[in-house]
Amino acid sequence: MDKQLIPYLKLVHGSFNTLVMFLFLYQGRLGLKIRGQRKRAKGPAVFEVVRKHRRFGPIFVFMGFIGFFAGLMLVIFDQGRVFEYPLHLMMGLFIVLLLITTFLISKKIRGPDSPWRTPHFIVGIFIISFYIIQIFLGLGVLL
Fold first, then answer.
1. In this predicted model, what pLDDT tens digit does every residue of 27-57 receive, in sequence order?
2. pTM score, two decimals?
3. How is the chain split into domains, by residue range?
């Protein structure tokens, strides 16, 4: 790979993952809307919001994986070693593990009173929080 492309690919990687973070914020907003409707109405949430949340979730998880592996490949091509930016790498790996966790938890949610809803919510909060931290760590790598 041409070393002159690396700075541009770093910007693409950072921009893509910033977009993914905003998509997870949107996904979280949908989830909070569903949660609020369930609490207020003591019944099912508006189906359209639930459908969007379910449809977009796996897509956003996949995008998170793409962002992680693109960054990993970028560091390998640029530096030749995976641990060049250890904190950024560990945070990214942790986000990927949280994405897997929330995806697996979401598959266990059945019915309005599922005990898996609260763990799904908590893991989602961690994902968003760690994405925000990861963006700042990534800015440190770029600058």
1. 999 999 988 887 777 666 678 898 999 999 9
2. 0.90
3. 3-142
Taking 3-state DSSP, the helix, strand and coil percentages for the chain, each rounded to the nearest 5, stand at 85, 0, 15
Task: Confirm if 125 and 101 have CB atoms less than 8 A apart.
Answer: no
pLDDT in tens, 93-124: 999 999 999 999 999 998 778 899 999 999 99
Q: What is the DSSP string of 36-70?
A: HHHHHHSSPPPHHHHHHHHHHHHHHHHHHHHHHHH
Rounded to whole angstroms, the Cα distance separating 60 from 65 reads 9
Q: What's the DSSP call for residue 5?
A: G
Which tokens in the block code for residue 113?
A: 């009173």
